[in-house]
Amino acid sequence: xxxxxxxxxxxxxxxxGVWLWDTSGDRYLDGxxxxxxxxVGHGRTEIADAxxxxxxxxxxxxxxxxxxxxxxVELSERLAAHAPVADPRVILTSGGGESIxxxxxxxxxxxxxxxxxxxxxxxxxxxGYHGLHGFGTSISGMDRFRNGYGRLVEDTSVVPHDSAAAxxxxxxxxxxxxxxxxxxxxxxxxxxxxxxxxxxxxxxxxICHKYGVLFIVDSVICGFARMGNWFGxxxxxVSPDMVxxxxxxxxxYLPLGGIVVSGRVADPFYNGEGNAFMHGTTYAGHPTACAAxxxxxxxxEREDLFTVSLEVERHLDxxxxxxxxxxxxxxxxxxxxVMGGVELTEEALTGRGIxxxxxxxxxxxxxxxxxxxxxxxxxxxxxVITWEQIDHLVSTxxxxxxxxxxxx
Length: 408
Ligand code: PMP
What we know:
By secondary structure, this protein is an alpha/beta fold. Helix content is 37%, strand content 17%.
């Protein structure tokens, strides 16, 4: 905040495909798909048309109680049909963080209804990001998002993201009879782009099953073709108890998120008095947001962005790995999903005082948007990016690194 307050705002006025324009009319390559969400690219008039049609017919109406609407039902059915979850049910929300709150409360409530109210503990991973609401803040794998808010939600802990053995040890330390759920992103996104080891998810799925811990996947970044499939986690051949989604479900044209829940977890709330899950939000099942999502999914399917994205992933991987030999770069993490993390060396960061914010600003001045986190620059372009545009993205980032290196 201290940095951004010093200069004028960067006003984005218009966007089309992978391009953005600012108030001066300068053009920028959107190397981050906004905040990881614009999977189909900007300026899709068919989404605008679908929104216009829906908002002119039924703008919005609550789905409280037995109220419902066509777009909410159709979207839920479509998501359920593709979800890697047994006997899937869908809860709709307005975003990722809201969905995480719902999933965390649902997990705890499930155990209470099942007669095991002591199962409240939530385990998440270092580097994991699950939004910044109450539970999301409390299970964050990054201390900078947790500190300074007093006591957070109790009964949570964080384990190293790359070790299934660490998850099992933590379940045993807490006591399996006290653990409600385990949360993981298929590929850690905001924490720096960390793909899992090959057998990581088969192992953690086995461990969760062994101790009866609910396995909750946060696919907010990884879903809707960014990993070549619907929810990201299919890549690892496991079936979670819940999958949380947002972002790419509507490519961000309107805010939308949700949770796919297995029937086994959902059913108990419908049986018996006093077992209800007393949770919901005003804009759940918003018909116009759902219409935007349906039009977005139509594009993903019609243009087969599920297959295209695997080729984009390969090309982006090869291009980004070319930066691994840059003197400022310690490591390039890429190759699983259309995303990458370029980690700067300790020597560049602490030795020479180079900041990722400086590299970001230099790249933007050269017409390419990347995302700075404390030690890395992240990229996650729209899935419609061409090879030429990928090369432009990576060569501009490389030139920005050179320019910053020359100043220090
Ligand atoms: N989970 C993950 C994996 C995310 O990347 C994000 C957002 N970056 C969220 C949850 C939170 O979503 P929102 O910002 O829509 O609340």
